[in-house]
Write a structure and sequence with these properties.
Elements lengths: L2 E7 L5 E8 L8 H5 L6 E4 L6 H10 L2 E4 L13 H4 L3 H10 L3 H4 L6 H17 L1
Parallel strand pairs: 3-4
Antiparallel strand pairs: 1-2
Amino acid sequence: MTTKILALTDALGNLVRFRLMPGQRFDSVDVPPLIDGLEFDAFIADKAFDSNSIIADLDERGATVVISQHPRRSKPLPLDREIYKWRHLIENFFCKLKEFKRIAMRADKTDKSFSAMIYLVAAIIHSR
């Protein structure tokens, strides 16, 4: 009965693309369709996106992988902590997004109207 918003922002913290997912789904499942067709130099994410398939895809693209590792990973990958600090931009975007009650409370009943509201709020955030 919950909804997750999987979002991708640019280097300035502006929304590039997002996907709505059921609340019980793993975040990493919808990453491939989220990044499909986009070119970028680096992918910064938290532990929820620590997946061998995602990392392999990013390596194929030639993107720098900056993903915090799960503690259970047998061979930890190197993490550039200076670049990882920029992950705050996506967190800031979600904080700004949740300032709008309709987003925070998931007031819209359908995915279509909820998506439209996210686009509208992202445009308002970008225009500030």
